[in-house]
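We both want to read discrete structure tokens more fluently, so let's practise on a single case. Once you have written the record down, we can walk along the chain together.
***
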Amino acid sequence: MKRILQQPLLYLALLVTGCTATREAREVQQIPSPQSLPITPATTEANYITQVVQRVGSSVVRIDSTRTVKTSSARGLESFFGEQVPNIEQVQRGIGSGFITSNDGIIYTNAHVVADADNVSVVLKDGRRFQGNVVGVDRVTDVAVVKIKATGLPSASLGNSDNLLPGEWAIAIGNPLGLDNTVTHGIVSATQRSTADLGVPTERVDFIQTDAAINPGNSGGPLLNAAGEVIGMNTAIIQGAQGLGFAIPINTARRITAQLIAKGQVDHPYIGVQMAQLSPDIRAKINQSDTGLKINQDTGVIILALVRNSPAARGGLRPGDIIESINGVAIKDIRQVQQLLEATKIGAPWQIIVNRNGRKQAIALTPEALPTKEPT
């Protein structure tokens, strides 16, 4: 099952070709690390990709899920049942990917692959099938953990996504469109792509962008670096774009899965504000709107709205406030606010300095757990 963002889609296919003389092949095998690989020869690229796939591929799994949904689409039966049209049960089937992170059967995948599933089945590369138990699901970051009863399983090594740079090699393995253990290759195109950039503002993730082909069914599979370490969890494609795939940084996934394994859920800090990044264009739109707000600067983070009875509303924040600092940290963009919030313990106090109509104002508030359904 693959979540597709609502924009046009064009899949990128990668074809790696080439042949190597015996001497050249022997030289490739002697290369000590991916960092020293020459970039131009296609033979060298194919060699290191093959090595990574051979080492990690057996830890990538296919996840089959089914869920039963009830619909009231029995059109034409109203004359028999009146307003009491019976519900019809439909079974939805989905295919996603995942990767084993411990030899006793812990598997990382996307939340949307297994959320609300009645049955989860995990298929290993060698064909063995196991019943999957969903340990926990976090819809906010789209991360989930599945456990199977097995030992001695191959597992993937987790890397460090905080050190990624655009231009590094990226390898995706998964089950796109049901084609098991498909490998695609590209580079890290960008890091820290915000959810606002992708039109999914409910998810608190700064995505890795890659041009390695990620298609429906790749969800939950690993994005690997040249050393064969997992640097991200493949999760989304933009419909209609050429070579645009996205992955959840593995450091984020590791932090979320640790909480899911420990207690089955993740408590995300929440203050209840809608923010915007100021720019000359945003400033002009705000000043020309009927909100009554008049902004005199082109940079910073502005509060646009507050959730009723939220920590921010009770603490005294107002629409039009421009955040200058949080707990002594100067604020320049929305990403800083989101990162500070995710790093905050629920119940830890926040001291916020805002610019309100040209004057500094101190605000004290206490983040709470993100409600299951935000109040209106």
Summary: The first strand starts at residue 4 and ends at 5. Confidence is low (pLDDT under 50) at residues 6-42.
